[in-house]
Task: structure prediction
Amino acid sequence: MKTVDLTTGNVQRVILTLALPLVGSSLLQFTYSLVDMFWVGALGSDAVASVGAASFYIMLGQAIQSLIVVGAGIKVSQAVGKRDLKFIQHYVRAGRRLNLALGLSYATLLIFFGHSLIGFLNMNAPTVERLAYGYLLVSAPMLIFSFFNLLFARLFSAYGNTTTAMRINATGVILNMVLSPIFIYPLQLGVLGAALATLVANVVMFGFFWRRARSLFNWDEVIQPTRTDYKEIFRLGFPMATQRILFTVISIFLARMIGSYGTEAIAAQRIGLQIESIAYMMIGGLNGAMASYTGQNIGAQKVDRVYEGYRVTTRLGIIYTGLIMLLFIIVPDFLIGLFVDDVRTIDIGASYLRIIGISLVFSSIEMIGNGYFSGLGLPKIPATISIIFTVARIPLALLLEPYLGIDAIWWSIAISSIIKGLVSALFVRLTKKEVTSLAEAV
Result:
């Protein structure tokens, strides 16, 4: 499987070549999510709310797992830039072992404590809670395979090879799209059918990833990771994982506030998040491209090229999210109405899109900054920025709620995202000397 050198060639072309397969994978996942939302939405607002409730804990698992994905990804991309094949093997094997232990542990947690986790959301809707726990129960084993799929995709990206991951993701998404309506309707499994389709798709994807990873990482060669290797993965992954875990935990607390406005509010946010992913499929692709690009170039000590990559990527992100912002502000009712016909759900969801749309440009700046600092091996900077202002969402929402109602929650998210983007851009400017010193030390 091909390794792509990101340290030479036209910067914008390199970034786009690396980012577009990642965007393609996100587009496929987005397409599936929309189709799945159509099928689940036809079951009613309770079904949508149950999937939304369970999804918070799926996101929490993926946030915890980013400890491994980020740490291993940084070390492998820098080792690729230095052409150090021995250390590549060390960190790939260490990441693989940590991934398995974490996946089994988290799946067990969901199985035994899922009822309590769903109950924490305070929905006061027994039917929704029962459906949510069933969805979570099926998703527990799915996450074990999903964790490996996410890790392999990040490691392939560290090699500059994002096309392989896109093809495997495409296979899983198409399979999911075919199985989901079959499991939901002809087999009459409802919400559980959607979860089962995702489980089957992830198992199939894992098989393909495992086969391709064996050829890329030369697993037949016996190289044992050391304690230092594990420590390095934890050291580099911990700040970003803490950021993502905290982000998800704050989202869960906000979901508890949203739940007090009824299941329509939970359903509206769930649909709004799916539509919002139109923006994040591009931002996420640029984030992943920035991390791998920066990692290889800092490993090759090409500092000027690192700066140019950040400028090009930021410009692309601003243009794209600016267009999405206009769409969310102009036709939010139409977008929400594509999935449900409940008037209250549409009203709440449209308000969500209008308010969140204002912050999208700044979110793109923040996420590209995350990729930039992660590639440099300085994940503490974006993690600190995110932690401080994400935590501020809860007091801000509580402060505004008496005046704005549920819109206070949306504004707390938007305002904090705007500030995070501005502060991230400021730190890129303030750390230029440190980046030069870092390149000399790598």
